[in-house]
Amino acid sequence: MTDYIKKILEARVYDVAVQSPLDKMVRLSQRLDCSVLLKREDLQPIFSFKIRGAYNRIARLSLDARKRGVICASAGNHAQGVALSAHRLGIVATIVMPVTTPPIKIDAVRYWGGKVVLHGDTFDEAYAHARALESQEDLTFVHPYDDPDVIAGQGTVGMEILHQHPEPIEAVFVPIGGGGLAAGVSAYIKYLRPETKVIGVEPVDAASMTAALHAQERVILNRVGLFADGVAVRQAGAETYRLCKDLLDGTITADTDEMCAAIKDIFEDMRVIAEPAGALALAGLKTYAAQNPTRAGALIAINSGANMNFDRLRHVAERAEVGEEREILLGVTIPEEIGSYRRFIQVLGNQTVTEFNYRYATGQEANVFVGIRLRDARTEKAQILAQLTALRYKVVDMSANESAKLHVRYMVGGRAPDLQDEVLLRFEFPERPGALMKFLDGVGGDWSITLFHYRNHGADYGRVLAGLQVPLAERERFFEKLALLGYPYEDETDNPAYQMFLSR
What we know:
This protein is of the alpha/beta class. It folds into 4 domains: 2-49 and 148-320, Rossmann fold, CATH 3.40.50.1100; 51-141, Rossmann fold (3-Layer(aba) Sandwich); 325-400, Biosynthetic Threonine Deaminase, Domain 3 (Biosynthetic Threonine Deaminase, domain 3); 415-501, Biosynthetic Threonine Deaminase, domain 3, CATH 3.40.1020.10. Helices cover 42% and strands 21% of the residues. It has 20 helices and 18 strands. It has a 6-stranded mixed β-sheet, sandwiched between helices. It is globular.
């Protein structure tokens, strides 16, 4: 660890990076009854901490290596960091990005003079192509996290935190993708202030470091969620894992709703928009604060970046209230008769209804999808559920139901009474031309598509809910074809939201 302290102190980052401020979140501090501070790496020239490690790595190259040029694989902030660093040092940079990369990210790399090569649908495919080009063209590969010089550059974030806050610190919360930032920050902080906790935070569906620490060895996740694309890494780095297993005080995971709520918290306190990976550490901080009411100092979260596509804000706004437990989403069965809607609203009393979806269907009962705003999540949610149940309403809490929140709420009423053998699947499609045709070619013409819902979320992947008519005798062959297609999916046929609102 002593070697890393020397590397961090000697890191060449301030030719391009700034010492970002450590700002107090006044509103959130009052809410959590503690001092909450945010390290503002969103204020770097590329709106991300990644400039630190990329520049420190490239600036230390030999003259011969500089002449040959550098290469990296990235769809986001590391790509911009390498492009800007190479531009400042007069080096040619090749950036391999997946074809699915949104134009805003490609344009940002080209702005700094990076030569963009688009290859593959996924980061893994782009990475493999970059390593092949590295060998073919004798380039220097700049790894996004698993490199000592990159780790040392990111470690300057921890150095600044201790300079800026000499008072006691209970814990510093660091987002983890491959682990470069966590390794560098923990190396510096644990050396100078071993009593201060350093806690890594990962998305619940991309927790590669958490899995590695639990298994006591690096593991490869079968798949990762892509909402926080800046930290969507299937395997923690070798060097970053070596450091983190000894230096981190633990990890916390956060789901999509919790990240959206943290984005809203940052906006309300700072009037800035963090990207999901940027708000990840604050989501973990809030979980820690709720679980540890007695604290011995400030809680500090690193806002790692603000490269948010504008189109994603709609999705974030929809999910933030649920993530903050300020809204509950329910599926409620009411009598299909005149006056039942009015009686149901009367039961809710002074509660604010945020959403109400209903479509007439034949029969004695009607299913409604309703959102209710909460003032005090600790007590109100249980009270509302108990009150409705006591009045013999059938109630299903859908606040944590991903298909309900992403798709079903927009499709209430779309029933097909005569439809048989429907299978419902939730897919992640690469956001590129031809993705739908690939899906149709993959499943062939043997089964009818009975339902399809898609919304653009401004990301490099799309989320699709699809129904297909597949007789039981053909299910095995159907799922074999899906496996060959290679699109991640979840079988939602038994999902209660589907059963209440869409099935026959």
